[in-house]
Specification:
Blueprint: H1 27-33, E1 42-43, E2 49-50, H2 56-71, H3 87-104, E3 116-120, H4 127-136, E4 139-144, H5 147-158, E5 167-171, E6 189-194, H6 202-216, H7 230-233, H8 238-252, E7 257-264, H9 270-280, E8 284-292, E9 295-303, H10 307-319
Parallel strand pairs: 3-4, 3-6, 4-5, 6-7
Antiparallel strand pairs: 1-2, 7-9, 8-9
Helix pairs in contact: 1-2, 3-4, 8-9
Function: Specifically methylates the adenine in position 1618 of 23S rRNA.
Protein name: Ribosomal RNA large subunit methyltransferase F
Pfam families: Methyltransf_10 (PF05971)
Length: about 325
């Protein structure tokens, strides 16, 4: 198993070279696409146009504009209090996973409907399927334990013709399970992805939010700048426990997927995850560093298929007529 440095992004400028969101947001262009964004645009202390990222309405309006401008999604909305994720970082995750598939494919990124991806915790926002389908033509299954999130994600898919037939949203009936109950017998996925809850309790999530707000100069009373329901923000035992369960459940479905993956927010989580994957018999483990501004994170991907089995997968899934 290989564990490349988790804190060194592949691109020195931060975001992935194929990421559409490199550089500053072009607010005039975004406002032209989405006029309702205009009322949230302000000039910050550095003289640059921006929005107040502690205002959930502003964050949602920015996301709506980005999705319309770059991904041709006209209808996108989420309930109050649900996670409105930073789109550039979500796009980065997908582009690095595409690179992983390209390596298995000996060069080009596999595209089109033959590639199937499982998004664990799709959320009400449905961001990963939107971006992944637009950029690579991949088909997605999104799972979630929250019935409201599932309903809203289905509404987003139904309201945008470009997503027709490309995204299937499923309710995970058992909160203790991840892949079990979602992956059907004989169903195959080329990738799984997950942005796990990384706090261990509501108190921990609130303390982190207070620190962020103080760093942003907005005071401790402000709400989470990107929102989030409890199941999106915290899990008993935190990120380490969730990713341990993710790894354990992946081993039960080792023949159903080429590459499993998850984001890791805390580098302290990595040693335990590596140890678990080694015990479970993972054939290859990759750690890819990512960054956006001052934020550094990493994704960990693993497969139970050795090099020969990976090439058999490639032939069967991507090259057969």
């Amino acid at each position: 198993m290989t564990h490349p440095s988790p804190d060194t992004p592949a691109d020195k400028d931060g975001l992935h070279p194929r990421n559409r969101h490199r550089g500053r947001y072009d607010f005039p262009a975004l406002v032209q696409t989405s006029p309702e964004l205009a009322r949230f645009v302000v000039v910050n202390a550095y003289g640059n146009e921006s929005v107040d990222f502690n205002n959930p309405a502003a964050v949602k309006a920015l996301n709506q504009a980005l999705l319309r401008h770059f991904y041709h999604v006209q209808l996108w909305d989420i309930p109050a209090g649900y996670l409105a994720p930073p789109i550039p970082g979500r796009a980065d995750y997908l582009h690095y996973l595409a690179d992983l598939l390209a390596e298995t494919n000996q060069g080009p990124v596999p595209t089109g409907k033959r590639v199937r991806v499982l998004d664990v915790g799709v959320g009400a926002n449905c961001i990963y399927p939107i971006i992944g389908h637009h950029e690579y033509g991949w088909r997605f299954v999104g799972s979630d334990v929250d019935p409201v999130a599932v309903r809203v994600a289905k509404q987003i898919v139904a309201g945008n013709p470009g997503l027709a037939g490309a995204v299937d949203v499923r309710l995970q009936p058992a909160s203790a399970d991840i892949f079990t109950g979602i992956i059907k017998p004989g169903e195959l996925f080329d990738l799984t992805l997950c942005n796990p809850p990384f706090h261990g309790s509501p108190a921990e999530a609130e303390a982190t939010n207070r620190r962020k707000n103080q760093n942003l100069g907005s005071g401790p009373a402000a709400g989470p700048n990107f929102g989030g329901q409890p199941n999106e923000l915290w899990y008993p035992g935190g990120e380490a426990t969730f990713t341990w369960r993710l790894a354990q459940d992946s081993a039960l479905h080792r023949a159903n997927c080429l590459w499993f993956s998850t984001l890791i927010s805390k580098k302290e989580t990595l040693p335990g995850l590596y140890k678990t994957l080694q015990k479970l018999g993972a054939a290859d483990v990759r750690t890819i560093g990512m960054s956006q501004g001052q934020k550094v994170s990493r994704l960990v991907a693993w497969t139970f298929l050795d090099a020969e089995a990976q090439q058999q997968w490639r032939q069967r899934r991507w090259l057969s007529s």
